[in-house]
Structures are given as structure tokens and as C-alpha cells.
Amino acid sequence: MVALSIALLASLVALACAGPAPRNLVLHESRDGVPEGFVKSSTASPDTTLKLRIALVQGDMASLEKALYDVSVPSSPLYGQHLSKQEVEEYVKPTQESVDAVNQWLSSEGITANTISPAGDWLQFSVPVSKANEMFDADFSVFTHTESGQQAIRTLSYSIPKELVGHLDLVHPTITFPNPYSHLPVVSSPAPRNLTIDASVPSSCGSTITPTCLQDLYGIPTTAATQSSNKLAVSGFIDQYANKADLKSFLTKYRTDISSATTFTLETIDGGENPQDGSDAGVEANLDTQYTVGIATGVPTYFISVGDNYQDGDLEGFLDIVNYLLSMDQPQQVLTTSYGQNENTMSRSLANNLCNAYMQLGARGTSILFASGDGGVSGSQSGSCGSKFVPTFPSGCPYLTSVGATTGINPEVAASFSSGGFSNYWGVPSYQQSVVSSYISGLGSTNKGKYNSSGRGFPDVSAQGENVEIVVDGSTEGVDGTSCASPIFASIVSLLNDELIAAGKSPLGFLNPFLYSDGASAFNDITSGDNPGCNTNGFSAKSGWDPVTGLGTPNYAKLRTAVGL
């Protein structure tokens, strides 16, 4: 008996001397190989510091989604009863079990993380590459984008402790690679045109689009909004600055009926700024502010400049701006964004997490609008693609409104660059099932195998997007892009919100359930044009909804009636 005890003690000592037992890690996310355009340059230096973010599994998102639809479907008894900050956070916050499990694991690794989201579902910490490789059984390496030269430290796979499965949603940035062109303004230099136009629209609209053209074309009112609580937010990224002197010149030339001193309010996050030297004026930022201030007459407009001190890594401020708005007791009722990227540039988990952030903001009563992109079926920008069409992000997210582009006046037709198609990450939402099914049935064998026939379709709506006049550094120029269409449509939503609030009603909030039901007949149906790409003609605009122009372009008078005014 004594000999056995000694043997047992000896084995225990040997085990202790052998070091800690191997951790039980399981593969959590991976990608098949280096994404197109990147090459592996070298192994990352073990001493290089990585700023990592951990997303915890969110609480009860299924119930939050139900709550979102309850307040967004016009036939619901809860329609318009948007949730408070506290109510949304109660749905989203991770369980205490998840918080404890992840923090205990981090503590065992000698790490203290900071919370970086209102609901506590995102944590952030910094570790050297050597520690990150050990913690996640990863191989962080230096990858170079051959065309731009941009470098990033990433891994093609990572693992997490088995006991954290169901508690830890994702680690970022890991397998999601930066897209060097993800936030390029989707604008271009247009060619002159001469079109036959309706007698009710100024003849000049045959060559260029101005606020007056849009007011006449869509019936947008010129009378000033009256409700100071009704606010419109414009997002700004990649050092795109909105110039107030250019806005003054724009209003002086195109909105002589209002004060040229009308301007926007600046808000900044992530070290953002908005210098006012003429040489700093950004085409995208000027476009977005000139066609919100210049169309949404009298609506308080906010330009939110996102700097380069991102807290969300490769999302480059996309999640930061949502968290910024979610941290407010009363966020702006409309947010328009004219930036985007290809859906396949990010991991499904990361894309879904950002989409859930839009769900939260929609439940709070904010209408979220995004330009659909400028690459037709080849993605956010024109380019080569393989055997399949490239959907854009975040247009495929079902909790926002994607805006495509049209051109021409009599009739309006689809702009050939208008990105549209079907998501590979999200299925067809309930509000869209009948129209998507109908469109796909009509396609027959056209483009078969090139798109996901069970995916969420986009865009949802459209507006003018070619030869739109703006002022940049004192000079007038024309621009093209769905980035023109998004602020135009957002301005119309803001004007409707103003009338609703004045009538004692709630703002529209998440638009899509309304757009595809009561609002479906309030659009000018676009039935010609297509969005070519990937060596195909892409999709074609047809009667009803289509993945080029969505439901069509707005008719303000009909929208007023549809919202109950």
C-alpha cells in the first residue's frame, strides 16, 4: 500500500513538471484560402501588438426580431411603438453565464478586456501576436493586397476553448480581410445626355439633376419641416469632409427659396473631424449633405464624421457609428450611408453581428438606408468576378433599406451600374417573399446558378443616380452613383416623418415591412434597364419589384396617403 502511494505521488509530480494540460480547443472559424487579391507575405512578428475584439453571443435576438416586426408592420397593433434604449439592450445583452465564462477565460490568460458596446456584447483587448497564436491556435501572418500594397495581419483559421462554444460568437479581426476599396465613394464622372422629358419637369433636367428636378419628378414638398425633434443623420467615412461654403453655394444656386445659411450639425466619433479648407472638400460628403439639407427642407441634418481610430477593426467605423447612435436616448430617426463593400469580404459571423446592430437601431425607430453599390451584379464596384454574381454588403441585411439608382426622366429607367441581386448570407425575409418568388419564377433559366434563389433580394427602392449636380471646392460638377439615390430617398423619409410627428404619430422607423405592404403602390414602377456584370446582362427591371430598382422610385403624394396622412 505504501509502495503504491509512492508510485502515485511520483506520477503526480511528473505530471506537474510536464506543464499545464493541453487546452481543449475547437475550430471556430476558418476560410478556404487567401482571398483573391491578397498574398501571404511573411509570418507576423511575435512581438507585434494586435487589438482584438470579442463578440459575445447576444441574448434573445429572436425575440428582438419579433419586437422589431411588431413595431414595423403596419397591420400590427404595436405599429410605431418603438423600443427604448433600455428595452433593446435587455434583449441584446449576453447572459451572465456567457459574460462570466469569457471573462474567466481571459483572466486565466492574464487579460483584462474593456466593454465597447452599449449592451456589453463586444469586448476589446490587446495582445502580442505570439499570445494570440497560442490562445486561438492560430497562425497570424502578414498578408499584402497586391494592387494597393495594403498589408494586414490575419489568420486563415482560429479556435476557441470548447467550453466557450455558445458563449463566444467571434473574434475579430481574424479571418475577415480588409477590402481596400470597401469605402470608396460610389460616384463617377457622368457623360452629358439629352433626354425627352415630361412637360411638368424643367427642361434642364434632361441633362442634369438638381433639387428642383427631384421636387418636380417625385412631388417632394418645398415647404419647411416644423418638428425640431425630427432629425436626419448622414454618415461620413475615409476622411470625406463636408464643406459648408460649398453647401452655401449649392443652396444659393439650387434652393433660392430658402436661406443659403442653412447648414448641418457636425458630430464626430473615432477621432473624426471636418476641416473646412476647400481642398479638403469630399465629393461624397458634399453630395450627401447637399442632397439632404437641399431636399429635406428644414429638417435638422447631422453629419457624423467617423475618424480612423476605429474600435471595430476592419468594419472601419460601420459598427462604431451604430453603437454611437444606440448609446443615445433619442437617436436620429433616419441614417443614410453611401458606402459599402462586397458581402464575401467578411465572415458570415461578423456580417451577421453587424446586421443585428441594424436590427437594434431599427427597433429604436431609426430608418437605415444604404446605397446598393455601383457594380451591377459584380459587386459594390465594377470588376471581375467568377462564375457567380457578387452581392453587396450591407444591402443583403434584411433590417435596412437598400437604395438602387435610376436615370432618365420620361421614362425613368434602371441605371446600368445599380447593384442588385440576392444575398448569400441571409434568406428571403417574410415581407419580401411574394415579390422575390414572382421575380425568380419569371427568370426561368436566365442566370441560373449565378445567384442564390433563396436569398434576400436587394435593392428595395431606388431614386435618381446619374448626372446629379453638386458643388465641390467652389466648382459645380455632376456625379453618378447609388450614393446619390440614398440621401435623396432618405430626405423623403425625413419629410414624411416630420408630417407624421406633427400629426402626433410615430416616425416610420424600419421601413421595409411598410414599403412592401401599404407602401408598395406608392412607387413609380421602373420596367426597363438592367445591371450587367460578370460577363452577363445581369438582372432586368420588370413590372413590380426587381433586383435592379427594387419597388421603384418614390411618389411623395402617394406615400403620404400610404402612411396615413
From TrEMBL:
Keywords: Calcium, Glycoprotein, Hydrolase, Metal-binding, Protease, Secreted, Serine protease, Signal, Virulence, Zymogen
Domain Peptidase S53: 208-565
Record text on cofactor binding: Binds 1 Ca(2+) ion per subunit.
Cofactor(s) needed: Ca(2+)
InterPro entries: Peptidase_S8/S53_dom (IPR000209), Peptidase_S8/S53_dom_sf (IPR036852), S53_propep (IPR015366), Sedolisin_dom (IPR030400), Tripeptidyl-peptidase_I (IPR050819)
Entry GO terms, CC: extracellular region
Active-site residues, as the UniProt record annotates them: 284, 288, 483
A molecular function GO annotation: metal ion binding
Residues the record lists as binding Ca(2+): 525-526, 544, 546
CDD domains listed in its UniProt record: Peptidases_S53, Pro-peptidase_S53
Reaction(s) this enzyme catalyzes, per UniProt: Release of an N-terminal tripeptide from a polypeptide
Localization terms from the record: Secreted, Extracellular space
Transmembrane regions listed in the UniProt entry: none
A Pfam family: Pro-kuma_activ
EC main group: hydrolase
Gene3D superfamilies noted in UniProt: Peptidase S8/S53 domain
E.C. number: 3.4.14.10
GO BP field: proteolysis
Region forming the signal peptide: 1-18
Function noted in UniProt: Secreted tripeptidyl-peptidase which degrades proteins at acidic pHs and is involved in virulence.
Designated name of the protein: tripeptidyl-peptidase II
Organism: Neolentinus lepideus HHB14362 ss-1
